[in-house]
Write a structure and sequence with these properties.
Number of strands: 22
Number of domains: 1
Strand content: over 45%
Shape: globular
Radius of gyration: 19 Å
Structural class: mainly beta
Oligomer: single chain
Helix content: under 10%
Largest sheet: 11 strands, mixed
Distance between the termini: 48 Å
Length: 302
């Protein structure tokens, strides 16, 4: 199956963002939902099971100058096996113009046993663009081994490379479960933040005033670290965990705090602003007490 979908968000003269184009086809169906804290929100709805081996799916997102849009999915995407020797592909291309903001916050990609899936993302950012980009991978459904999967992300900022990241997991990737890659974890993900708020992230600063990465407390069987990126005002949070629920908690700041774009500026204390954390969209997750990350600690919110 082949499908193409496209989202184009532009800002009107009054500053309000409108969706000039919202076009999809099964299984990539697009639906506009109620705005979240004033941010127009689009959901990708799966119109069929999959992706199945042999599927070729493409989604493009363009955010015009001064516009803001948030893209989510209604459920996790489960990559499934299909005909022998076939590979399924999901390509996402995003362009954010100067002054535009994109929040890319889909649910998890689950690599079911026997699948052979490639997820490719390419993001092009103008110098004044802002970005929240979350990716999560769960290696296998409950009680089953992982299928083969490659997740590759490429981000350019102001015409220069900002991030080149690729992960291969599953039986065809030797050593993927070893200490050099996932270390036995079955869930992994990252959150990329680009913009003034991400100048250092919650990172330490060395004697020369340069931000350095920081390992965050993550609990048993999990790990998390913030890394400032050299190619722009950007920081990358990466995490591994034993399940999707724990992984979402580690990646929930600041994306799921629903921080309005106007607040994505660097506070005087040098840290990104804290916000509420919810285990939204995590399969099997029940209601949880909100939390907030301050510095390197996760604390309850009353």
């Amino acid at each position: 199956m082949r499908a193409v979908a496209r989202v184009v968000a532009v800002a009107e003269r009054q500053g309000r963002t409108v969706l000039r184009e919202l076009r999809g086809e099964s299984p990539l169906l697009l639906r506009q939902a109620a705005a979240e804290q004033g941010v127009p929100t689009v959901y990708v709805v799966g119109g069929a099971a999959g992706p199945l081996a042999g599927d070729d799916l493409r989604l493009s997102v363009e955010v015009g100058p001064g516009a803001t849009v948030r893209v989510r999915t209604v459920a996790a995407s489960v990559a499934l096996p299909g005909r022998a020797g076939a590979v399924s592909r999901m390509r996402v291309e995003a362009v954010v113009h100067d002054g535009g903001t994109l929040h890319w916050l889909p649910e998890q990609l689950v690599a079911a046993a026997g699948c052979d899936h490639v997820a490719e993302s390419r993001v092009t950012l103008a110098e004044g663009a802002r970005l929240l980009w979350r990716e999560e991978l769960v290696c296998g459904r409950y009680g089953e081994p992982a299928g083969d999967v490659v997740v590759a992300t490429s981000v350019d900022h102001a015409g220069r490379p900002l991030l080149r990241q690729s992960l291969a997991a599953g039986p065809a990737a030797p050593g993927w479960a070893g200490p050099a890659v996932l270390g036995g974890a079955t869930a992994t993900g990252s959150l990329l933040v680009v913009g003034p708020a991400a100048a250092s992230g919650p990172a330490t600063v060395d004697g020369g005033g340069q931000p350095r990465g920081r390992v965050l407390p993550a609990g048993p069987g999990a790990s998390a670290a913030w890394l400032p990126l050299a190619g722009g005002p950007a920081a990358l949070l990466t995490a591994t965990a034993v399940d999707a629920h724990t992984l979402r908690t580690l990646l929930a700041f600041p994306a799921d705090a629903h921080i309005p774009p106007a607040l994505l500026t660097t506070p005087a204390d040098g840290h990104s602003p804290p916000g509420g954390v919810a285990a939204e969209g995590v399969p099997g997750a029940g209601p949880r007490r909100p939390t907030a990350r301050t510095g390197t600690d996760v604390v309850p919110v009353a």
